[in-house]
Amino acid sequence: MSSLNAQQIATLLQQQGVEKTKIPTMTAIALAESSGRPQAFNPRGLDRSYGLFQVNMHGGLGPARMKEFGLKSEKELFDPTTNVKAAKQILGSQGLGAWSVYKSGKYKEFLPQAQQASQGLGQPSPETAQKPQEISAAPGGRTFIIVGDESDDPTTFLKQFIQKSPKIQSGVDPIAMLTSAFTQTPNYLGEKQ
Length: 193
Known about the structure:
Layout: H1 6-15, H2 23-34, E1 41-42, E2 49-50, E3 55-56, H3 61-69, H4 80-94, H5 100-104, H6 111-119, E4 133-137, E5 143-146, H7 154-164, H8 174-184
Antiparallel strand pairs: 1-2, 2-3, 4-5
Helix pairs in contact: 1-2, 1-6, 2-6, 7-8
């Protein structure tokens, strides 16, 4: 497996539920520890460290961590997702100081690219962003825009919409108007003809 870039590492951290404020630092730590290489291995000295976050399994750490992380083999730590899960547990129990590159400050070399990679996390991409859908033109030329999941049941959606909407004082029956819109307007769910 080739090296992971900062964006890929940040995304893995987000997927495993690492606190958003810690993702840039953790991404920089992974880059400093392994250059983003999931197959990185350090067997020297008091190390027997695996993967992105160089999870150390040397000596008595190995058996205890195997049990803690639910591993059958240390080599499972070469899997990026497994390694990030282990790193999250280490972060939770020992903090950022568990990594020598954090204590030495070496991670700071990678922090700008890690921060940039983390900026777009949690924001929908333009392709997946929800778009408002026009459903009806009301009396007087006003247009109602309703945002909702296309899989919502229209009846349930209408009831929720009306409960949350301000009362209409114009004498228009909102249930009748919206029901009509859902059943007669061709683009009520954003469809184009």
